[in-house]
Amino acid sequence: MINLQTGIPFQIEGELGKHNTLPIENLIEIGQNLQELVRQLAIANISDAEAIDLNQFKIELSDFRPGSAIPVFMLTPREFTGNLTGDVKKQKQIVNNAFVEIMQFS
């Protein structure tokens, strides 16, 4: 059952959802479009005679583990083709190692 108050699960299919991940730019676009739809529905469906605070209709990511609000981020598993011929796996490992080192210092 679809219910904005308890949460709406989205299943991303096709090429975009192939790796069970979602690029940040796509997440932002989906979120912005959903937010605008909900905002417009609130404006159109709440009586002009009533006061309306559109902040009450903001959407949020939910369904994190109990006791935390920590999403899981990872490098894309997608393979992009282009003119560059570097070893992508090696490059990702180098970046990962640098990230881990910075996190250890912080």
Can you describe this structure?
- The chain has 106 residues and is mainly alpha-helical.
- It has one domain (14-105).
- It is 42% helix and 0% strand.
- It has three helices and no strands.
- It has helices at residues 14-17, 24-45, 88-105.
- The N and C termini lie far apart (43 Å).
- The relative contact order is 0.10.
Beta strands, count: 0
Which term fits the overall shape? elongated
Q: Helix tally?
A: 3
Measured between the Cα atoms of the first and last residue, the distance is 43 Å
SSE pattern = HHH
Residue ranges: pLDDT <50 for 5 or more in a row? none
What is the count of distinct domains? Answer: 1
| Overall pLDDT confidence | 83
Strand content: under 5%
Structural class: mainly alpha
Largest sheet, in brief, is: none
Question: How much helix, percentage-wise, in residues?
Answer: 40-55%
Radius of gyration: 20 Å
